[in-house]
Amino acid sequence: MGNKQPTVDPKEMAREQKRIITRSNRKLEREIKTLERQEAKTMKEVKKLAQAGQHNAAKILSKDIARNRG
Question: Engineering a disulfide at 50: which of 17, 26, 29, 58 sits with its beta carbon 3.0 to 4.6 angstroms away?
Answer without folding.
Answer: 58
